[in-house]
Automatic annotation (TrEMBL):
<dbReference type="InterPro" id="IPR010093">
    <property type="entry name" value="SinI_DNA-bd"/>
</dbReference>
<feature type="domain" description="PBP">
    <location>
        <begin position="93"/>
        <end position="284"/>
    </location>
</feature>
<protein>
    <submittedName>
        <fullName>Putative molybdopterin biosynthesis protein</fullName>
    </submittedName>
</protein>
<dbReference type="InterPro" id="IPR024370">
    <property type="entry name" value="PBP_domain"/>
</dbReference>
<dbReference type="Pfam" id="PF12727">
    <property type="entry name" value="PBP_like"/>
</dbReference>
<dbReference type="GO" id="GO:0003677">
    <property type="term" value="F:DNA binding"/>
</dbReference>
<feature type="domain" description="Helix-turn-helix">
    <location>
        <begin position="5"/>
        <end position="53"/>
    </location>
</feature>
<dbReference type="InterPro" id="IPR041657">
    <property type="entry name" value="HTH_17"/>
</dbReference>
<dbReference type="Pfam" id="PF12728">
    <property type="entry name" value="HTH_17"/>
</dbReference>
<dbReference type="InterPro" id="IPR009061">
    <property type="entry name" value="DNA-bd_dom_put_sf"/>
</dbReference>
Length: 310
């Protein structure tokens, strides 16, 4: 065990709770966690901070883990990037090469939790793919909503395709959103705050579809891969996620539904200007772009483009 990082199972023993409770804390954003390879780790400083808040009854409250005092200063090493896509591992590797001596950590949370982490000053960069059904716009409306009064910069990383994961040959003949309420269809959902969950809920709202009529709506998984795996194992007939994940899981097919923009959101005042320029330089470099193109499943046509300065 590292003196600075704990596994969820180790945190469970320290707090005398189940590991499922630990994963619940991570899911809700109450206990920060980082993705290192295929494993999750909790930093000792974050664990001590959680314990201190618990003792003083200052537990996280409100939507998606918003603390009672969101302006309280946070203490964290290096630079923290919120997001789940594997492309962020590649980006972190390039940043480490270009900015030696600075540690880059991943916080494995969904889009809304990432924005709230920026607001709470517990992260430097957040990734989002949040679709607003009223404006048909990605990310910018949510940045305004979750970062009120903050100057923010939205930079495109890639674009991806969201769609349905289904069994090979599409035996249930699933075609669109309305099929989700059929009594013979079992759905598997994403967790609250995830971009795919927001897309689903916005589509249901716009189409006037009652989520209570969807069998499996309350079953939640924490990643696109987990959703795709459920369908591949036959535990669900359909799930929603990215085309990239469909390429990584056997025994499923993919029905494309919507192209989405996967952006980086940064508060310029909370990041070293030189680090920000290095980030843009990497995104616009031939080396990085070719590496991402080789991974398939991504559209890099807007990569490195500043979408909005708010």
């Amino acid at each position: 065990m590292s003196s600075n990082l704990y596994k969820p199972e180790e945190v469970a023993k320290i707090l005398n709770i189940s590991r499922f409770t630990v994963y619940g804390l991570i899911k809700r954003g109450e206990l920060p966690a980082y993705r290192i390879g295929r494993s999750m780790r909790i930093e000792s400083a974050d664990l001590e901070n959680y314990k201190r808040k618990s003792r003083s009854s200052e537990l996280f409250t409100g939507h998606e883990g918003l603390p009672a005092d969101p302006s309280a200063p946070a203490h964290y090493p290096g630079l923290i990037i919120c997001g789940q896509d594997v492309i962020l591992d590649v980006l972190s590797g390039h940043l480490e090469k270009q900015i030696p001596g600075v540690q880059f950590l991943r916080r494995y949370v969904g889009s809304i939790s990432g924005l709230i982490s920026l607001y709470n000053r517990t992260a430097n960069i957040a990734t989002t793919h949040l679709w607003d059904g009223d404006s048909d716009e990605y990310n910018v409306p949510f940045v305004r909503r979750y970062l009120p009064g903050q100057k923010a910069c939205v930079v495109n990383l890639v674009s991806r395709v969201e769609g349905f994961y289904i069994a090979p040959g599409n035996p249930k003949n699933i075609k669109d959103w309305h099929d989700l309420i059929r009594p013979d269809i079992r759905f598997v959902n994403r967790n609250l705050g995830a971009g795919a969950r927001v897309l689903l809920d916005e589509k249901l709202r716009k189409l006037n579809i009652d989520s209570r009529n969807i069998q499996g709506y309350s079953r939640e998984e924490l990643s696109h891969l987990a959703v795709a795996s459920c369908v591949a194992r036959g535990e669900a007939d359909v799930g929603l996620g990215t085309e990239k994940a469909a390429m990584q899981v056997r025994n499923i097919e993919f029905i494309p539904l919507q192209k989405e923009r996967y952006d980086l959101v940064i508060l310029p005042q909370d990041i070293n200007p030189q680090h920000f320029e290095t980030l843009l330089s990497i995104l616009r470099s031939d080396e990085f772009r070719k590496e991402v193109m080789g991974m398939s499943g991504y559209d890099i046509s807007q990569m490195g483009e500043i979408i909005a300065e708010l």
